[in-house]
């Protein structure tokens, strides 16, 4: 390319109903000399991130420049989005399947002992916290395709090796701390679990927080639809993944190991090729090469798909491992970046919601089983809750389009706070009448409230995700999202610590109180952010607006009459 703008074909509108408009930057066609250089996209926050800019008109002198920079939506084929969703589904499905299967496998290897599964889960979360900053820096600086490829291969190899270790442990049939071989195999499985957790997190952050923004750049409606569909995939896998592995493990635990291994190995090439095709078709996914590499290799997306792609991935991994330092592990520079960013308050509000036992996870399911509910009833309750959660992925995008992202976030967190307040009130009503915390009446009222509150939870999640995507710069997106993920893992660990401190189901009221307090703290933080951003928290009704306008006009008229009389009397005196 000679540095001049070449004539291009006019943009074509998408005609299919299922297509999502893709925003690409096309050069202006009118009155542009051939010597003007191409303007590269900047890393500044988008114009729509500042609500004060909404509805303002640009000057005539800046109109031509605005037109030359404005992304023009063109049609993106359904096959491209299908490949992106397929890759995301396979990554999420295998991660959820392995995460749920490990619980049944370890419970079979070490029966009547919760310590191994607790150490396993805590080690995974701790690794995600410790390596959050190096991972985020790698996502921001390395080639996008290299990052996602490495996450796919790392996740599959870790799962395959873990399945081999679990197969060996099942064959030994030895208890916890009864053999040095068992302890060594379990320790190796914990290390592999950390690798799998990091690889799955890299894939999730890279695709949801980075690739989606680039693919839908300049088209907010398309990005909201894509965010909602990918969250729908997450929730679908969250429901059916554990259910599938539970049914297989009920027949045979070894069969669950074989099924987990087979699904991971069978899907690796499909996911690998799907994400490569997406990278090929979206030129904006290419980024400038890091120092020490040829610029042409990274500016052209197709250059990453040549015969040297494997060596490039290996080089990037070695460079990333050499760049890890104690300063990065302590997250000092990244915490400064995170807390100094305008999007930190909504991000921290979302992270606080992970400090909860009211999520139909292991803690609450154990409480429900202690409340005289059987496994089938708990399974039905969990399925109904997931249906409510899925409904939020249809409701939230429509609300965002109608009332905006900020108000959707406020409405969603208010909905969650309201239902939880009702559920906790019902719980303590029966608790105050002498019922135990595990009484059926207390549990039923709490379950209904939590199920309805999940609609607000995921609506708020999608709203915050849109805010972060809008406001976080391209070269800081990975680090910001990684620090956010580390806070989410930290609060999730604290939630598990609550049931360690109060392990008796009859003491479940204290984890409930702390969980609700965390939700209200998140709502207060977001309300503070909203008031500081917009200058007000709630829109007054139309009748109040009319009354205020009349009062202002009357006071203006009275003041004008007084000033007129004063000026007349002054002129008479003079």
Automatic annotation (TrEMBL):
Any GO CC annotation of this UniProt entry: membrane
Bilayer disposition of the protein: Multi-pass membrane protein
Low complexity: compositionally biased ranges: 52-64
Region (Disordered): 32-64
SUPFAM superfamilies in UniProt: MFS general substrate transporter
Single GO MF annotation: iron ion transmembrane transporter activity
The entry's keywords: Ion transport, Membrane, Transmembrane, Transmembrane helix, Transport
Locations listed in the record: Membrane
Pfam families given in the database record: FPN1 (PF06963)
Superkingdom: Eukaryota
Chief place of localization: membrane
Transmembrane segment boundaries: 117-136, 157-176, 188-207, 233-251, 335-355, 375-396, 408-431, 437-457, 508-530
Family, similarity comment: Belongs to the ferroportin (FP) (TC 2.A.100) family. SLC40A subfamily.
Job of this protein: May be involved in iron transport and iron homeostasis.
Name of the protein described by the UniProt record: Solute carrier family 40 member
UniProt source species: Neurospora tetraspora
């Amino acid at each position: 390319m000679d540095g001049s703008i070449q004539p291009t074909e006019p943009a074509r509108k998408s005609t299919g109903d299922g297509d999502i408009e893709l925003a690409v930057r096309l050069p202006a066609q009118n009155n542009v000399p051939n010597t003007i250089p191409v303007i590269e996209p900047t890393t500044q926050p988008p114009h729509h991130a500042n609500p004060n800019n909404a509805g303002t008109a640009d000057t005539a002198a800046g109109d031509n420049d605005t037109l030359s920079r404005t992304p023009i939506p063109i049609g993106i084929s359904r096959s491209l989005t299908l490949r992106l969703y397929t890759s995301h589904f396979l990554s999420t499905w295998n991660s959820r399947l392995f995460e749920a299967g490990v619980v049944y496998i370890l419970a079979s290897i070490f029966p009547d002992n919760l310590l191994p599964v607790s150490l396993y889960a805590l080690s995974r979360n701790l690794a995600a916290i410790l390596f959050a900053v190096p991972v985020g820096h790698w996502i921001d600086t390395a080639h996008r395709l290299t990052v996602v490829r490495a996450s796919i291969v790392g996740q599959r190899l870790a799962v395959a090796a873990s399945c081999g270790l679990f197969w060996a442990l099942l064959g030994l049939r030895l208890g916890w701390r009864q053999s040095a071989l068992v302890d060594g195999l379990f320790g190796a499985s914990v290390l592999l679990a950390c690798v799998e957790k990091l690889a799955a997190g890299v894939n999730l952050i890279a695709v949801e927080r980075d690739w989606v923004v680039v693919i839908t750049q300049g088209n907010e409606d398309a990005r909201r639809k894509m965010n909602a569909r990918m969250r729908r995939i997450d929730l679908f896998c969250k429901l059916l993944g554990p259910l599938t592995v539970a049914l297989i493990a009920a027949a045979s635990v070894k069969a669950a190991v074989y099924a987990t291994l087979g699904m991971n190995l069978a899907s690796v090439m499909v996911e690998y090729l799907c994400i490569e095709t997406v990278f090929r078709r979206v030129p904006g996914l290419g980024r400038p090469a890091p120092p020490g590499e040829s610029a042409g290799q990274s500016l052209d997306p197709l250059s990453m798909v040549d015969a040297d792609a494997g060596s490039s991935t290996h080089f990037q991994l070695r460079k990333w491992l050499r760049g890890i330092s104690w300063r990065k592990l302590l997250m000092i520079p990244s915490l400064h970046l995170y807390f100094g960013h305008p999007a930190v308050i909504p991000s921290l509000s979302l992270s606080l919601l992970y400090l909860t036992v009211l999520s139909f996870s292991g803690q609450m399911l154990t409480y429900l089983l202690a409340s005289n509910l059987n496994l089938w009833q708990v399974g039905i309750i969990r399925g109904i809750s997931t249906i409510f959660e899925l409904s939020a992925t249809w409701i939230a995008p429509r609300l965002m389009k109608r009332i905006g992202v900020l108000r959707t976030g406020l409405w969603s967190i208010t909905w969650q706070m309201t239902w939880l307040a009702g559920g906790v009130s019902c719980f303590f009503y029966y608790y105050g009448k002498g019922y135990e915390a595990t009484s059926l009446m207390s549990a039923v009222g709490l379950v209904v409230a939590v199920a309805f509150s999940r609609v607000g939870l995921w609506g708020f999640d999608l709203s915050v995700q849109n805010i972060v995507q809008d406001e976080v710069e391209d070269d800081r997106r990975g680090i910001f999202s990684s620090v956010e993920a580390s806070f989410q893992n930290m609060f999730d660990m604290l939630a598990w610590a609550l049931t360690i401190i109060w392990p008796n189901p009859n003491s479940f009221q204290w984890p409930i109180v702390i969980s609700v307090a965390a939700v209200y703290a998140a709502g207060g933080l977001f309300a503070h952010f909203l008031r500081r951003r917009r200058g007000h928290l709630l829109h007054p009704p139309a009748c109040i607006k009319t009354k205020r306008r009349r009062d202002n006009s009357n006071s203006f008229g009275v003041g004008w009459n007084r000033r007129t009389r004063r000026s007349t009397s002054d002129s008479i005196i003079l």
